[in-house]
Amino acid sequence: MARLSLSLLLLALGLANAAKSPYQQVLQHSRLRGRQHGPNVCAVQKLIGTNRKYFTNCKQWYQRKICGKSTVISYECCPGYEKVPGEKGCPAALPLSNIYETLGVVGSATTQLYSDRSNLRPEIEGPGSFTIFAPSNEAWASLSAETLDSLVSNVNIELLNALRYHMVDKRVLTDDLKHGTTLNSMYQNLPIQIHHYPNGIVTVNCARLLKADHHATNGVVHVIDKVIATTTNTIQQIIETEDNLETLRAAVAASDLNSLLESEGQYTLLAPTDEAFNKIPRETLNRILGDPEALRDLLNHHILKSAMCAEAIIAGLTMETLEGTTLDVGCSGEELTLNGKPIIANKDILATNGVVHFVNELLIPDSAKTLFELAQESEVSKSTDFFRQAGLSSHLTGSERVTLLAPVNDVFKDGLPVIDSNMRNLLLNHIVKDQLSSKYLYHGQKLQTLGDKELRVFVYRNNLCIENACIAAHDKRGRFGTLFSMDKMLTPPTGSVMDVLKADHRFSTLVAAIQSAGLTENLNRPGTFTVFAPTNEAFRAMPQGELNKLMGNAKELANLLKFHVADEILVSGAVNALVRLKSMQGDKLEVSMKNNVIHINKEPVAESDIMATNGVIYAVNSVLQPQASRPQERGDEPADPALEIFKQASALSKVSQRNPRLAPVYSRLLARMKENTG
Which segments of 225-300 are extended strands (E)? Predict the structure, then answer.
């Protein structure tokens, strides 16, 4: 029963913790980290060189960094508690008083002062139930002189209205501050936007909540890091009124996104400024602006599906755009970053339906790019330069639906090959008709190239290959073309296995052997062969007598040659560790990779991936021997039952002489030996 009670208690505690808001979970972690310093002490991380402080979560605690910058740990009283002289920690709860008095003890004395000046004091000292999001002293000090002067010069109207906009006429604790909700302020019921992020950050009109849940007799006080202003414009209205968003304004109108950016919701617009558009080559910009589909993809790539205030970003995170792509949003010190670059020029312009950040670089998604643009600053940039030199640029920049099989830059580490008519034709065979996606390719699929060749698709456990080349990275899908990064140049097949062997002088002896064994027709017919082809050198290495005997016995020769052929295509890119193939002779072939060299039955391959229309050829400098034909090592000899019994009997005979109990066993072994030999 005791065990059951303990289990129920632990379950209840777990459920209670799961019900806590992200802010409360982070606060609890800070409290746990600070408990060694006494009761109600919270660990706080402070960014070095700034006054910015954060309650710490588990990840930040171990990394000791926020926004990539180092922090120092300090220990402070948790919200609602204070120190007592001579005692450890923060054992005393703050005196419970009205909101006006509470402001003075929680770090918002300036708000208290302005409440007095604006005649708000009687209201927040009196009866009622209020919540005030009180700007910290530093928040008031950071206001521009012009803004502050406009407030304090008209305390009975401007300052009072500003303070009442920070208030709600009910008690609202952090657990009630749900993400994406709005609260009606006490100034004309204008909305206050609340965002409560999974990392524990809570924002109020994008101002960060610093210390929360300070209880008062007539409500609750939350300290925030900014003075918030009323928000009445939608994202679309912000676009229409900002002078440096002229190109964006025209683009939004052309793509018919006005209604979305005027609608209810919570979006983040990464608004490219005119400067951002001007950085793009005029030809590229005109192409996108003149293509409705590319333009819509471009704009949707700048719209995040949720509102993200800058203050909520304390580490890198991936966010989804309306286009279906993702952006890496992060921070570096005070700067916000997109995909690792500090390109956000102006942040946290709040709208009724989200937030706007100005960006000074255009974020062009892959879906709005040409093949040539996809390849720029990528691992295949040398390939596209190669295609351009060969006069094939039109296929990479036009509206033709194609897939480019582009070798990665490492393939050309020794320089680009000389371009002649043969090379140009080969490059044409790296451009496949139709815009493909690698996830829809299947084994045995045939692809047609612009060079009128047919390429085969091979799907393996560890790789996806097209002829001898395998896909080295995720494909990039552009406006009209798709880019496959390939690990080598393709070598499209030029004939059957027999055609290829006949055309290569290294295999003249093998060709004669195949003809002598009557296997020519087999290797000419359609199929899926892998041929480990012994070179002339391999045959010369055989003892002359053995070679003569082999060539004079058509049946034995055919058997040996079939051992060099498997009835499935295995290109080198599919060999990771050990691959076993069944030969046409019946025995297994073991293909492995060692020091980047393919081995067959532990023999190194001289050349891999010689492609044929009905298979693939590997050149080997030794003649492979089937298992039955190899000289047997002693440990590999087949067991002879009589011999094994004899060995056991011999061993037991000596033992049985010393131990009469083993004599019957010895007798039975002798009897079995006689049965096997008889």
Answer: 267-272
Predicted confidence band of residue 153 (pLDDT cuts 50, 70, 90): confident
The answer to whether residue 128 sits within a structural domain is: yes
In whole angstroms, what is the distance from residue 369 CA to residue 435 CA?
14
- Same structural domain for residues 241 and 149? no
Helix, strand, or coil here: 357? strand
Provide the token pair at 24: 């409360």
What residue numbers bound the domain in which 179 lies? 95-224
Question: In this predicted model, what pLDDT tens digit does every residue of 653-663 receive, in sequence order?
Answer: 444 445 555 45
Contact yes or no for 267/353 (Cβ under 8 A): yes
| Whether residue 206 sits in one domain with residue 145 | yes
Q: How many domains does the chain have?
A: 5
Q: What is the pLDDT of residue 333?
A: 79
- CA–CA separation, 199 and 347 (whole Å): 20
pLDDT of the residue at 576:
86
Which of 367, 395, 427 is the endpoint of a domain? 367
The answer to whether position 21 is within a domain reads no
Residue linked to tokens 């061993």: 651
Q: Would you state the structure tokens that stand for residue 351, as one six-digit string?
A: 């709208």
Scan for tokens 């139709």, then name that residue. Answer: 434
Contacts of 498 (CB under 8 A, 6+ apart): 511, 514, 520, 523, 524
Q: Quote the mean pLDDT of the chain.
A: 89
Q: Do the Cβ atoms of 166 and 134 come closer than 8 Å?
A: yes
